[in-house]
Specification:
This protein is an alpha/beta fold. Strands 2-1-3-12-11-4-5-10-8-9 form a ten-stranded mixed sheet, sandwiched between helices. The protein has a two-stranded antiparallel sheet with strand order 6-7. The structure holds nicotinamide-adenine-dinucleotide (NAD). One of its GO terms (molecular function) is isocitrate dehydrogenase (NAD+) activity. Keywords: Magnesium, Metal-binding, NAD, Oxidoreductase.
């Protein structure tokens, strides 16, 4: 039976980069029944909603979803599709590996860490209200249930990948109740994983230590806002958002997406770097149990970027999206 995968191309460069990922995945020979669904600003214009009910249902029913970036206005306008998707489908775990890429010059070599971010609550609960004109409150919600499931996800991930340590990142010295609960819950879950070391680090110190020496860390687990910031910081350590994949895993679905935006400045020009969404496809294949195909793609990407001959403009090359994608597919057949 083929896997049933939803392709949600999204806005801006989304259609170009997701098409590239689709081609690379097809080259593995894995049988996939793709079903394309609208999401984002384009969906809002044509269907009246950035996250139409039928897209949501298709994602819920699929084996996995590959999603392109979607445009969100800051301030007013509709709510972020990404936040809505994570909450509606309870995609509670955001998984962001940060691994050095050969050929991409960054501050450190051999970075290999994973940021696990709680995806459904914290300051992103969407509970904001005006107390009196000029005074607004945003509620930062931390629950034991959500803390426990994200802690368990982090330890399971560490165990499955043969990693040695999970670090809980928090601010429990100041936020004694909320982050105290998060830290205590992580500590309790760690008791079930005696084969994996556990420690904790205050978020500001964690940011400094990540920049000073990323090898201080292995798997990091944290609540939503800290995870949003530190996962981008980790991406910066390995060459930026253009090559960073991500996965959102939950009880009712899984969504794999690049972490960069819609890049309106280069959209439609065939110049976008599809690496991040291709590597998100790699995470998707691993999630589906297709390790060999995933490894083949990842090695090919690392080979092409390492050779630095056929890379896109953001990586200092002159190749377009299609040319780079062809090079990856060619490298896969040579693997
Ligand atoms: P952006 O990531 O779209 O662009 C920042 C810069 O990086 C631009 O110069 C762009 O050309 C470049 N860039 C990004 N991805 C690239 C790629 N794959 N290849 C080559 N160059 C690339 O960030 P932004 O300009 O802040 O946001 C634009 C829109 O994207 C906004 O509406 C924002 O809400 C949305 N956004 C969506 C997501 C998502 O859906 N996951 C994430 C971030 C931003």
């Amino acid at each position: 039976m083929p896997y049933r995968i939803v392709l949600a191309p999204g806005d801006g460069i989304g259609p170009e980069v997701t098409a590239a990922a689709q081609r690379v995945i097809a080259a593995t020979g894995i049988e996939i029944e793709w079903s394309e669904r609208q999401i984002g600003a384009g969906a809002f214009e044509t269907l009246g909603s950035p996250l139409p009910a039928e897209t949501l249902e298709a994602i819920r029913a699929a084996d996995a979803t590959l999603k392109g970036p979607t445009a969100t206005a800051s301030g007013g306008g509709y709510r972020s599709v990404n936040v809505e998707l994570r909450q509606k489908l309870q995609l509670y775990a955001n998984y962001r590996p940060a691994r050095s890429m050969p050929g991409i010059v960054s501050r450190y070599d051999n970075v290999d860490l994973i940021v696990v971010r709680e995806n459904t609550e914290g300051l992103y609960s969407g509970l904001e209200h005006t107390v009196v004109p000029g005074v607004v409150e945003s509620l930062r919600v931390i629950t034991q249930v959500a803390s426990e499931r994200i802690a368990r996800f982090a330890f399971d991930t560490a165990r499955r990948q043969g990693r040695g340590r999970v670090t809980c990142v928090h601010k429990a010295n100041i936020l004694k109740l909320s982050d105290g609960l998060f830290l205590d819950t992580c500590r309790q879950v760690s008791e079930e994983f005696k084969d994996i070391a556990f420690d904790d680090c205050i978020v500001d110190a964690a940011a400094m230590k990540l920049v000073l020496d990323p090898k201080n860390f292995d798997v990091l687990v944290m609540e939503n806002l800290f995870g949003d910031i530190l996962s981008d910081l980790a991406s910066g350590l390995v060459g930026g958002l253009g090559v960073t994949p991500s996965a959102n895993i939950g009880a009712h679905g899984s969504v794999f997406e690049a972490v960069h935006g819609t890049a309106p400045d280069i959209a439609g020009k065939g110049l976008a770097n599809p690496t991040a969404i291709i590597l998100s496809g790699v995470l998707m294949l691993r999630y589906l149990g297709e390790k060999q195909a995933a490894d083949r793609i990842e090695e090919a990407v690392r080979g092409v970027i390492g050779a630095a001959e056929t890379v896109t403009g953001d990586l200092g090359g002159s190749a377009g999206t299609d040319e780079y994608t062809d090079a990856v597919i060619a490298a896969m057949t040579n693997n």
